[in-house]
Amino acid sequence: MAKTKTAFYCQNCGAQYAKWQGQCTSCKEWNTIAEEVIQKPNQKDWKSNTPLTARRMAKPTLIKDIQYEEELRLHTGDPELNRVLGGGLVPGSLTLLGGEPGIGKSTLLLQIALHLRYKTLYVSGEESQQQIRMRAERLSSQSSECYILTETKTQNIFKQIEQLQPDILVIDSIQTLHTDYVESSPGSVSQIRESTSELIKFAKETHTPVLIIGHITKDGSIAGPKVLEHMVDTVLQFEGDRNHVYRILRAHKNRFGPTNELGIYEMLGIGLRPVTNPSEILIPKSNQDLSGAAIASTMEGIRPLMIEVQALVSSAVYGTPQRSTTGFNVKRLNMLLAVLEKRAGFKLGAKDVFLNITGGISVEDTALDLAVMAAILSSNEDIPIAQDICFSAEVGLAGEIRPVTKIEQRISEAEKLGFTTVVISKQSKISKKDYHIHIQRVSRIEEVVSFLFD
Ligand code: TYD
Ligand code: MG
Prior knowledge:
Blueprint: E1 5-10, E2 16-17, E3 33-38, H1 79-85, E4 94-99, H2 105-115, E5 120-124, H3 129-138, E6 146-149, H4 154-164, E7 168-172, H5 189-206, E8 210-215, H6 227-231, E9 234-239, E10 246-254, E11 262-268, E12 271-274, H7 278-282, E13 293-300, E14 303-315, E15 323-326, H8 330-344, E16 351-357, H9 369-381, E17 389-392, E18 394-395, E19 401-402, H10 407-416, E20 421-425, E21 438-442, H11 445-453
Parallel strand pairs: 4-8, 4-9, 5-6, 5-7, 7-8, 13-17, 15-16, 17-20, 20-21
Antiparallel strand pairs: 1-2, 1-3, 9-10, 10-11, 11-12, 13-14, 14-16, 18-19
Bound molecules: thymidine-5'-diphosphate (TYD) and magnesium ion.
């Protein structure tokens, strides 16, 4: 019997070693290297008896001589997903959808598969056909072109694909797949890598778009090797607070489009509803003025987004004051508090500060700074900010109010939603003059304070 071939792989980053060692030299993690059995294929691979274009020897070509066609895209029927992808699915592309368990990955892809006008094969290694059928009932399916296969062995999946010839393939999830060519258990680095490369080969040779679901580990990275993210064309992340109804879809990597687009969905009893006008749901509709709330005009990708920020400032009960946030970076909050203390004389060092971005949505736009600061000041002074004011500016370490990009779009969005005043940086350049909204320009924190409370 031939000797079994093994190799050592880091379970975190996927680096390969000839022998075991305690620390991975590539990602510096300890105790992540494990032995895995590999058996390199001397078996025939899944399509080796059909002539393949890829087998032909490639020759170098002058870039201007390369023929190309206008990029064709398959519309998924979901406006949010289409925008995040950059206009739809590219034929032959691999898209990885990552997210925490229970966030709605299977629901999203099944829903899309059911509404597609293309023949779709949904391969599930996680749920039975009955379970998927029950879920489809909730999603009020319309399509009859969606096939369900419960299988985890890639060779069997490809056999079915050859018979069915689907236009789109969905894999739920990559961690459940296993291939005959590698002997380690499903979910291990070498299994994931091998299964993914088989899927890549299939996608590129048949021009079929493949959507893959991947689980996420506690620290937020896609479970298994980082190499998975390098191998696929697009990495989408499905996130949100499971206790909230809103879910966000964003692209972390996209070979065919932008990475700053954001898709927003609402999780209902009948599946995920794309939210096409997010500003209206994220700002409150109460008539009461409450202290500690401020509204920011932010941008995610090309789309403006109005978001409510809530702050609560109270005397610290325990020795060390608490700083806690949802949807906002704690370090940035600490920085803003330090600026308030040092540049505007507010004694917040002994206070607890809680910050909440409503809807459980997290944004990374620095234009949120001024609204965060206003919300903190409003809570600290217990004076409400009028609900028709919104903010859009960054705050610098010297207490200066800095301009942000695309200010005109932000102002227009605020105007469209009925705000009467928008507070921006004095240095922001605006070419258009005839806004119906009052534009309050400020350059320092002191001016913000006197504008709000005097
Ligand atoms: P699921 O897609 O199974 O999550 P994942 O594949 O990411 O693990 O989503 C499961 C959750 O979504 C579950 O808690 C129930 C909820 N859900 C709804 O609220 N409405 C629905 O129509 C469906 C199908 C699920
Ligand atoms: Mg699932």
